[in-house]
Design a protein that fits this description.
This protein is mainly α and 145 residues long. It has one domain. 61% of the residues lie in helices and 0% in strands. The N and C termini lie far apart (46 Å).
Length: 145
């Protein structure tokens, strides 16, 4: 019998970072992003976060057990889709596209029980020109979406 993971495969810090990035998206776009990978909100959940978008993302997160590899893969898929949309919208460079592809491939190849998503991100950023890319992504304003 397979034993459930005892720690989050996607850290709270990573989930919070993506939540804060999604604040610039419309509620409809957030809904579609999660629904495309089979993640649906618990609209009865009343998170303490302020703001409709933050609360909506937290209502989605509330339905997930990120200690489970299958659940973590679905969330990684949502994050990957979000990053692909950002690349398409902003026209980031090919090297950035390659970084995202590497993240996606590593997350698909790993069992996520031994390589949490944050570790995958950390290694991929070390493998790339992270200073340049971090500056580009950090300055994105998604409010125009």
């Amino acid at each position: 019998m397979r034993r459930a993971a005892t720690r989050d495969l996607i850290s709270k810090r990573t989930r919070n970072a993506f939540r804060e990035f999604l604040v610039g998206w419309s509620v409809g776009d957030i809904r579609m992003l999660f629904e495309e990978v089979g993640i649906f909100p618990d609209l009865n959940h009343d998170p303490p976060e302020r703001g409709d978008r933050r609360r909506f993302v937290e209502q989605h997160y509330h339905t997930l057990d990120v200690r489970e590899p299958a659940t973590a893969r679905r969330l990684v898929s949502a994050y990957a889709e979000m990053l692909q949309r950002v690349i398409a919208k902003t026209g980031l460079s090919d090297s950035t596209t390659q970084l995202v592809a590497a993240l996606i491939n590593r997350s698909k190849e790993s069992q996520l029980g031994t390589a949490p998503f944050t570790a995958l991100c950390d290694q991929s950023f070390k493998d790339s020109n992270s200073d340049r890319m971090s500056g580009r992504i950090g300055s994105l304003r998604m409010s125009s979406w």
